[in-house]
């Protein structure tokens, strides 16, 4: 592509150089720079990309987009912009010929429920033989091809490349989990969303957003980017604020919920240990929905999928068939071991709200005690301490016994993290044991369990690693449980 075409709709100042030249590739990491390419210098959280401009030039970059006053060699074109992350999104979309303008892009945001909603949706789309691409926590899915992303919502350059690959594979529909980080850091800028979906908002990522208000405003940005529908959970207090904001403006608003009077409404809900049945009422009629996952959480997540599929013109029959066809979701209240005496469940719950909901879902069907294995993943600043205490409070209130352990301590002081959870537990007079090594903690929980007990291992869900320091160790909880059980026989 020619550089001047790449710069279409980008606001910039030409510091020096020629625009009538080739722009063969784009890089935001100097180590990925290549011949005749464009290097976009990003001021990061840990380092400043501007200091790697020389390295990018050495690897062949001939155009630099920057936001600071930096001296760059003569023969290189230099463009200055106000925000390089935003510029990266613009040139990346241009480079891949604005793929989202040719597709039906659905964006889901909210603290919890994003991943399972994408899985319900994928199954509904499959009912009509329509393939739906997925970008999210579990990775990117393009037909049979599945690969991991560094982030839940990838950086704009990677994202536009994924969209282009979807278009090339004739995949015209894509559902994407849109994180608040992505919205704040322009990763999804210049992507055209047909539909935006809001699940809920509870405390998380406050090390980046500082306050719930900032976190909410980050999420709310998605609903200024949509063209066809905004789909909102009306039972969530932040959802109701969004509804008030979006009610009298385009695009169309579709609400869902159980408690409030909503467009897509669940009633007559029957909960069972492994599944849930409810009636969904829509403006076009009612149907019975069977969700093969227990608890209110999955009523909400399946409702989000019902509303989205409804907005996308699927029939109620296709919708209920699609939801019933989902047998389970990896790491979402996943029963990884069960015999006559015991049940062991792995779940991604890693916020106080999701942990409480998971424990309350299990409680009515537990014949014995609930033994919870959990930790709190590394997070910076004061919100870390608050979160550790809050998680301990939930554990003390909703589980019978807790095994406090590690969850991706990364570079943080793991003993401090565990000590603060223990302090929270002591303050609430919870029954607990601290076992630093997560594998030992799981073994301990299994060892003390008695007939009828349910063990919930919370935090990692589908994840298959434990990050200690800078090293990522393999850690597959389903396999670990089976190994421990096998040894015990
Ligand atoms: C806090 C945060 O979001 N950081 C993201 C950010 O990194 P950064 O800007 O701090 O990068 P940096 O290391 O300071 O480097 C700055 C620039 O210098 C460049 N560089 C660096 C070294 C070098 O030799 N040459 C070079 O050019 C880097 O490529 C970068 O462009 O931009 C990177 C590129 O997009 C992201 O991968 C990175 O995500 C990190 C890994 C991360 O952990 N992010 C989390 C907090 C996150 O985004 N989570 C959300 C939500 C999760 C969920 O709830 O599901 C997500 O979407 O994943």
TrEMBL record:
Residues 25-96 form the Mur ligase N-terminal catalytic domain. One of its GO terms (cellular component) is cytoplasm. Gene3D superfamilies: Mur ligase, C-terminal domain (3.90.190.20), Mur-like, catalytic domain (3.40.1190.10), MurE/MurF, N-terminal domain (3.40.1390.10). It is found in: Cytoplasm. It comes from the Bacteria. GO terms for molecular function: acid-amino acid ligase activity; ATP binding; magnesium ion binding. Keywords: ATP-binding, Cell cycle, Cell division, Cell shape, Cell wall biogenesis/degradation, Cytoplasm, Ligase, Magnesium, Nucleotide-binding, Peptidoglycan synthesis. The keyword Ion transport does not apply. It is an enzyme of class 6 (ligase). Residues 331-461 form the Mur ligase C-terminal domain. Carboxylation is probably crucial for Mg(2+) binding and, consequently, for the gamma-phosphate positioning of ATP. Residues 108-309 form the Mur ligase central domain. UDP-N-acetyl-alpha-D-muramoyl-L-alanyl-D-glutamate binds at residues 30, 151-153, 179, 187. InterPro entries: Mur-like_cat_sf, Mur_ligase_C, Mur_ligase_C_dom_sf, Mur_ligase_cen, Mur_ligase_N, MurE/MurF_N, UDP-N-AcMur-Glu-dNH2Pim_ligase. The modification N6-carboxylysine is found at residue 219. Coiled coil: none annotated. ATP binds at residues 110-116. Its EC number is 6.3.2.-. Its cofactor is Mg(2+). The gene is murE. Pathway: Cell wall biogenesis; peptidoglycan biosynthesis. Catalyzes the addition of an amino acid to the nucleotide precursor UDP-N-acetylmuramoyl-L-alanyl-D-glutamate (UMAG) in the biosynthesis of bacterial cell-wall peptidoglycan. This is UDP-N-acetylmuramyl-tripeptide synthetase. GO terms for biological process: cell division; cell wall organization; peptidoglycan biosynthetic process; regulation of cell shape. Belongs to the MurCDEF family. MurE subfamily.
């Amino acid at each position: 592509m020619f550089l001047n075409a790449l710069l279409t709709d980008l606001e910039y100042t030409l510091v020096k150089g020629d625009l009538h030249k080739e722009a063969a590739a784009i890089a935001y990491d100097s180590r990925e720079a290549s011949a005749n390419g464009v290097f976009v210098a990003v001021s990061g959280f840990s380092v400043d990309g501007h200091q790697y401009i020389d390295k990018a030039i050495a690897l062949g970059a001939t155009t630099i987009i920057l936001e600071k006053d930096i001296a760059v060699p003569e023969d290189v074109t230099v463009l200055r912009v106000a925000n390089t992350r935003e510029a990266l999104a613009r040139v990346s979309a241009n480079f891949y010929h604005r793929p989202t303008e040719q597709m039906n892009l659905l964006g889901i945001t909210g603290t919890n429920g994003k991943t399972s909603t994408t899985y319900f949706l994928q199954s509904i789309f499959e009912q009509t033989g329509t393939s739906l691409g997925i970008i999210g926590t579990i990775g990117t899915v393009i037909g049979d091809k599945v690969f991991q992303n560094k982030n839940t919502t990838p950086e704009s350059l990677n994202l536009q490349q994924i969209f282009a690959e979807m278009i090339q594979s004739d995949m015209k529909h894509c559902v994407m989990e849109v994180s608040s980080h992505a919205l704040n850091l322009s990763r999804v800028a210049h992507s055209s969303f047909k539909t935006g979906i809001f699940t809920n908002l509870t405390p998380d990522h406050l090390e980046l957003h500082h306050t719930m208000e900032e976190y909410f405003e980050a999420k709310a940005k998605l609903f200024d980017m949509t063209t066809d529908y905004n789909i909102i959970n009306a039972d969530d207090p932040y959802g109701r604020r969004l509804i008030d904001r979006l009610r009298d403006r385009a695009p169309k608003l579709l609400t869902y919920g159980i408690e409030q009077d909503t467009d897509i409404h669940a009633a007559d809900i029957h909960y069972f240990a492994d599944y849930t049945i409810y009636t969904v009422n829509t403006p076009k009629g009612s149907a019975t929905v069977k969700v093969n996952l227990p608890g209110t959480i999955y009523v909400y997540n399946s409702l989000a999928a019902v509303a989205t599929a409804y907005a996308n013109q699927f029939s109620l029959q296709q919708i209920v068939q699609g939801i019933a066809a989902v047998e389970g979701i990896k790491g979402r209240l996943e029963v990884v071991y069960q015999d006559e005496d015991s049940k062991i469940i792995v779940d991604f719950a890693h916020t106080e709200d999701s942990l409480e909901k998971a424990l309350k879902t299990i409680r009515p069907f537990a014949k014995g005690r609930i033994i919870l294995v959990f930790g709190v993943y590394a997070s910076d600043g004061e919100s870390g301490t608050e979160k550790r205490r809050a998680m301990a409070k939930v554990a003390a209130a909703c589980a019978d016994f807790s095994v406090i352990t590690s969850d991706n301590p990364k570079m943080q002081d793991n003993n401090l993290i565990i000590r603060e959870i223990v302090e929270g537990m002591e303050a609430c007079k919870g029954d607990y044991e601290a076992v630093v090594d997560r594998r030992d903690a799981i073994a301990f929980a299994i060892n003390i369990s008695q007939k009828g007990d349910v063990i919930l291992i919370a935090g990692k869900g589908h994840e298959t690693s434990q990050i200690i320091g800078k090293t990522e160790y393999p850690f597959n909880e389903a396999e670990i449980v089976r190994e421990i059980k096998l040894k015990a026989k």
